[in-house]
## 1
Amino acid sequence: MRGTKSGGHRGADEPSGQGGSSVLRQPKAVWATAGASVVAFMGIGLVDPILPSIARGLHATHSQVSLLFTSYFLITAVAMLLTGFVSSRIGGRRTLLAGLALVVVFAALSGMSGSVGELVGFRAGWGLGNALFVSTSLAVIVGASVGGSAAAILLYESALGLGMACGPLLGAVLGDMKWRYPFFGTAALMAIGFLALTAFLQEQPRPAGKTSLLDPVRALGHGGLASTAAAAFFYNYAFFTVLAFTPFVLNMSPYASGGVFFAWGVLLAVFSVLVAPRLQHRFGSLEVLGGSLLLLAADLLVLGYGDHTTAVVCTVASGAFIGLNNTVFTELALGVSPAPRPVASAGYNFVRWFAAAAAPFLAPRIEEWTDVHLPFVLAAAAAVTGAGIVVLRRRTLTIEAAEPEPVTEDGVTVFAG
């Protein structure tokens, strides 16, 4: 199995580290966007260490508190159809600032919630802002960075890894004082990001034509992108079973849980940025992806059936496999089809975030109906299914793809070529 080779930008087989000498020499706008991206990704894992504290503070069940993830990612998934539509009309800079503003408002409101229902609702608004920001930030970093898409993806994955690592740590430090404080902390950090982008990011060139709401769905008509999104859907179910359900299983103090997920996030960052490119260069992207998904499945089974110490070790170790998967999936999504990168990314994320919404909703309910082991068995089965899709659809993931300029017909963007 071999990864995508894409005309005009790096194929998935080429190591992300190529052009590494240019990675650190970036315009201020790129660093401002990457910095705000770190905080945006911090918001995903921020609540991990404080989920039990939130449940106690709001007198809620585990399944009710898990809806914090479900509402967040469900709105994020649907909003993916809006991101290109909005950014192609008001520009990337305004879209980023609008997303940041929404996160600031809804993160602050989350901290003031008086019930779990209010908190779930405010997290949904947070998800809308995060969708506008995260999907557009990747396109902005790719467009404004020096060193091509290799350097841009490396920066983006670095931001993701750093955010995933620091989110639980911030949640633990602030949440140990009061479960509301991490939300206020995130709002303050995103406000700083808003000011930084206002100061350093100039308006980005708009696409030749306006993107319609259905363009991301049409992009999924490409077999390679559809296969990538389908495999990522099952992978994300496994990923977010770890992120949203494991804190209840570990049942540790905010500091202890934050430490576990900080170590998890560090491994995620190291493997996504440093290890993945080397493994891809040596073995090929699809081999790395399939093997990593199978190893994640094995890790989940051991996590589900091991004792507490084993569960902690396996939770941390899963960060390595998740880091590998994140990098390869991102590269495939951007390079496997001829769709413009923002459109391809929106279609891909539209599919995969539904799994991120489903796992936090289903895992605690499955535990209530059966036992604590079955959620991890199903998550492992999902990871194996993702690996199976990669193997069975490998031919569609090796198509030569070039990124054409979008062409407008009657106000709707279509793909030339």
## 2
Amino acid sequence: MSEFLQGGKPPLILASSSKVRSRLLEAAGLAFTIQPPGLDEHIMRQAIGSTGVLGPQDIGEVLARAKAEAVSQLVPGAFVIGADQVLAFGGRILAKPDNMEAARKELLDLSGKSHTLHSAVALATNGGTVWAHSESSTLTMRKLTPQFIGRYLAAAGEEVLSSVGAYQLEGLGIQLFEKIDGDYFSILGLPLLPLLDALRREGAIEG
């Protein structure tokens, strides 16, 4: 499949250690290598968010660009994909939980309410971003009991700590929701259709 799409094309790199993003690209038939950017996302989020100038959607795009550009500077000529997600809820931004107790508290906060998930992706080459895009989705959790949340976390395991909101929609996390408005791929962490279109326009894959 990759020879059909990428024969003779520049290398493609995913600047992320996300297993879900990797699986989405693989399923789309792309051949790529993985090279995490090595940035301290927690510090970057704090620095960007503390200014109060950027909204959640902009923060996601700034971080996606930074990840793509950081790796792109190390591998000239390659096309590098960076991505980020920001969860906005009640006037604040929720980060990935540090531990299972933090995950429990986040789910209790989100229970029975709606939140917005901003998913951003950027494409960089030779150290600069050539394209960036973000999409917003609204997700409404059903009313969850503390007992159900405890059972869910026990069943899902510490994998939930890699996701903002402590849920993974592609797995058991779908059990937490009553309504979802938005693109499925974007909710998983990668606005895939706009990304594929950009890769075709930039000549990174066959049109």
## 3
Amino acid sequence: MAQATRRPLSRERILAAGIAIADADGLDAVSMRRVGEQLGVEAMSLYRHVANKDDLLDGMVDDVIGAFPAPPIGGDWRDRLGAQVRGAHEVLVAHPWAPALATSRAAVGPGRLRFVDGVLGTLLSAGCSPQLAHDALHAVEVHVFAFTLQELHLRSTRGGYALDHLPAGAEAYPSLAVTLAEAQHDHRAEFDFVLELLMVGIDRAIDTTTR
């Protein structure tokens, strides 16, 4: 019987293995040795495809961002931007280690560039000037990455929300107490609320700059 052909090692397989490890065990579990074990090769073999661990991490997070959905074609710009932003949020929630890594790395790969280009295309088609599109892009990225990062951080290990119950001494913060007593927490609703505020602000800025 012919021996089964081993799949050739590639950068794509290495990054996928790193992502699988991070998803299962957290980013701290990712190492060149662990990735090699996952792929059934010696760690030294990886260096033909990734320069070092920093290159591995940069590639992993860019692959995740590269999975953000492409901008829809046609329709109102608000619907297109909403689909891009919500899709990005869903991808990041599926990879809880990725938002912090994305906001701490200086490298910008093709996945990030495609996302940025897609958002800019939507904003320019809405009537934004290049300057307004530039500024709005930063607001969109803050919402996508920072909101998701905070959401993931504030979730308890039981899937709750860290501020759902007031700690001892909370009577010193009466506004917080009354708000938590009356309000309900819903991650998705809050994400959509801020997104809607963002789009209203962009729409207003377009009207102001085109008068």
## 4
Amino acid sequence: MPWTAKAREEHTLHVTCGIDWAEDHHDIAVVDSDARLLGKLRISDDAAGFQDLLRLLAEHGDSLDDPIPIAIETSRGLLVACLRAAGRRVYAINPMAVARYRDRHVVSRKKSDHQDAVVLANILRTDVELHRPLPHDTDLVRAIAVLARAQQDAVWDRTRAHNRLRSHLREYYPAILEAFADKRERLLAREARAILAIAPTPAEASRLTRSRLRAAVTRAGRQRRIEAETDRLLEVFRQDRLRQPTLVETAMGRQTLALLAQLDAACRACDDLASDTEELFLQHPDAEIITSFPGLAVLTGARMLAEIGDDRNRFATARDLKAYAGSAPVTRESGKSRRVSHRRIKNSRMAATGRHWAFAALTASPGAHTHYNRRRDTGDRYHAALRHLFNRMLGQLHHCLTTRQKFDEAIAFTPPVQPLLAAAA
């Protein structure tokens, strides 16, 4: 909703602060409502520097009841954490937006750390209503966010490590890829990694004895059909195949062991972080509501909470949350041209979790499956239909978190009203 001139005047900030951060120092600028520079300072990235910043702000009217708002180009780091703990309103401004604002004041493209701090302060002075301060999340949800994002990063690292290993094995060891081609986890399966550890080359795999292979399969955790699996693997490994020269094959085997060590480390990190994330998530009061939704397990629910947070003032409407997650479509219109497409600027972590959530909901919720089929019938492709389902369920999640109630299938997916048949004359 557009701001009126009176509302804008009442909301005008008298003093604003901008911080251009770096690894070892930070440049501070404080300006008033007339864009006059009231003070500037370069502080060190330590406790003494933080005290210097607080003194500068106090000199220009900063107090706990009326703190001076601060703009900075990051939402992380010790400086931001201390500012938030001290009760300051911190605005994380996108660096691309700062670059556009810089061009409004200096067309010569001159740039300096002090100038960027002034630009950040002026952004709040002129357009504070267009930016949101960092949310007032609890320490518990911020700790969940740390673990959930680390676990998601570990999953992506595991995928990259798996792809590197698979690409390497294709060059000299197709038998191991064939042996686990029908497995859902492929090389991520514990059996595959256990066999690679004792037989990193085709020559070593062909010389494996039945007892040694059976021991590797058992050590990997298999409890059923051990003998049948051992026979199948022996048959695959002893088939005639194309081979690299012996010396080259041995060297590639050593590289395989190095790549396997990276994959094992990534798998352990995923499992450990997942356990820690789930344990912490279940302590949050929102966990019961989030996991009541079909398709949202404990780990995916933790990822959703990590990105949404528990500050209910952060997203005033479900529309704001949908735009943040990238599930709501965006319209580009000019003259007679009008194009509706999906959002590319979004919270990538939330969007990735949303795809998993929507896919899992297809089998967990009859209403979600019906909604998905209806979107496909209207012409949506697979990903578009999943995104539309995620968009709808995200609105339901916003409502449930706001009203503190669990998911109800009958209310969330009310069946469409069938038209009444005309009475026979």
